[in-house]
Design a protein that fits this description.
Blueprint (H helix, E strand, L loop, with lengths): L26 E2 L23 H4 L40 H12 L5 H11 L2 H7 L2 H13 L2 H20 L14 E8 L3 H17 L6 E5 L6 H9 L2 E5 L16 H7 L2 E8 L2 E3 L10 H4 L3 E9 L6 H5 L8 E11 L6 H14 L1 H8 L5 H9 L4 E2 L5 E7 L2 E10 L15 E5 L18 E6 L12 E8 L2 E8 L5 H7 L16 E6 L11 H7 L8
Parallel strand pairs: 2-3, 2-5, 3-4, 7-9
Antiparallel strand pairs: 1-4, 5-8, 6-12, 7-8, 10-11, 10-13, 11-12, 13-16, 14-15
Helix pairs in contact: 9-12, 12-13, 12-14
Amino acid sequence: MSLPLPRGRYRLLLAVPLLLLALYIFSPSSTSFRPFGISSPYWLPQGLEGHEDLIGPVDIEDDTDLSSGIPVADAPTSPQGWEQERPTVPIEISHPGLRVRLHALLTRPVLPADAALAHNARSCPLAVHDKLVNPDQLKGQREFWAGVSEDDVRSRREGIVRWLEGLEKGGVDVVAPELGYGEQRRGIVITAGNKDTLQRAITSIKLLRGYYMSPLPIELFSFPGELPTQGLAELQALRVTHRVLTNQQKVPGAWKNFHIKALAVLLSEFDEVLYLDSDVLCLREPSYLFEDETFKKTGAAFWTDINKDHPENAIWRLLGRTCDPTEWEVDSGAFLISKSGNGGLNLAALHIAAHMQAEHEFWFRLSGGDKDTFRYAFWALGLEYVSAPRWMSILGYEDNGKFCGLSMVHYDLSHPPNTLPSTPPSPLFVHANLVKHSPPLSPAQKAFQTLKRPSPDYPASAPILDRAHYFVYSSRGGMCLDLELLPAPSPVEAAQDWEEEDEYGPPLEGKGLEIVTEQWARVEDGVYAEFPGVWVDEGGKVGGW
C-alpha cells in the first residue's frame, strides 16, 4: 500500500540518488478470467504485419505457447485510431513469443500528454478519480507526469527491450523454459534486514512454522551486512535460508528501500513464489494457494490496494494503454507468481519489474514505490494476471468512538470449499503496515480488534465501490487508516460519467452500500479469534520505528 502521508514529521523525503543497475547475483549464508490463445501460428498483433524483419522469424513449434493480444484482465487496450510507432531497430531476443510482445510494446501509439488525458478521462472521469487517487501522489507527481515527453516514452520502452537483451546476452534466462523452473518447485520469499523488519519477519515465520505448521521452504533476502548474528541463528532454527543480495545497497535518505523485491523473487530457488513483506501475516497455512485454479490460469495473482490510478498518470502513455476504471492499484506486500506461468513469460515480466525498480528514480514516481511495477511489467508484455475478487477491509480498534485502522485484510482467491460460489472469499492475509507506525497499545492485541469494510461484498471491480473511500489520518503520534462513504453524485454527474448501469447496480449511486464494523473475534464464527494472542506470543508488538 502506498499511503497518502499525513502532514507533519512523517512526510517522505522524495530526493533519491540514482541507483546503479542491479547485477543479478547473490550469495547464500547457511471472479473468473478467461485465458487467451492464438488460433494460427502465423498470427501477428495489430501493427506487426510488414515488420517481420525487425522481430525475426515467428515459426512456432508445437510446444510453444504464444498467447495473443491484451487479455481480459488488462482491458481496455491501447487507444484506437492513433498512429502506431515504427521502430527501426531489430529486437535481439531468441524467444519468438517475447519478441512479438516487445515489438507490440514499441509500436503502441505515443500520445502527447494533453491528448492522452482527454482520452483517459473518458473512461476514468476526473470527478471520480481525483477522489480515489493517493492525494499526495497526485499533488507531488502531477507536474512530473505532464513533463514526460514523447521522446521519454520511446526511450523508456526501448530501455525495457535493451534490458532484456542485455540479460540474455549475459546468459540469463529471460523466459522460463518449463514448469518447475528453479531448484525447488514452490516456496515463500521474504525481504527483511534491519532489526525491526527482521523481528517482524521472524514473528510472521513463527506463525507459519509453529501455529500453522507450514512445510513450505522459506528464503529471506537482505542487503549485505544487515542481519545480526542472533537473527541468523533464529532464522536457521526456523528452517529459513538466508540470502544476501550482493552488489546491492540501501538508498541513503530513502523512507523505505523498495527496490529489491523483484530481484529477490528472481533470485529465489523457486518457480512458484508466495512473496510476503515482513509485516504480512498469514491467517492460515498457505500451501493450497499454489493449487488454486484462479492462480493456475496465469501463474500470477495480486491483491488490491486502497487507491485507483489517475488518468493524468504518465504510465498510460508509457505503456500505450487506456485507463481502466475497474482496476485498483496493487498492494505488493503479498503476491503469488510462477516464473513459468503464461508460457514462461512471467519470468520476463519479473525481469521488467526488476528493471523498473532498479530505475526507481523514474518509475516509482508513477507507482508510489515498487508496488505497481509488477502490474506495469505485465501490462508492458500484454500478459494476463488475476486480481483477488474480493476487495480489502481494514483491521484496527476504536478509541473514544473513533476508528483507527492499522492493517489491511486481504481475502482468498476463491470462495471457501464446500460452499456456494456466491459465498465471499475468506480472510487470508493481514498486512499490518501501520502497526509499526503506531504508538504502543495495551494490550497489543487491541491492534486486531475491529474489522471495518464496505457491505455488501461487491466484487472488487464493481464501480459502486468507488464510493467507499479509504483515507489516512494522524492520531496519537501515529497513523491510522479509516473508511468513509463518499456522497453520491447527482443524476447529471452520474449520466456524464457512466453511459449505462453496471450489473451490480446504478454506478456510484450507492444504493444499499454501507460501511459496517464487526468484532474480529466473531468473524466467520470466531475462526480467527486466537490470531491476535498468538501474534503477541510469537513476538508481535505495536510500534517499532
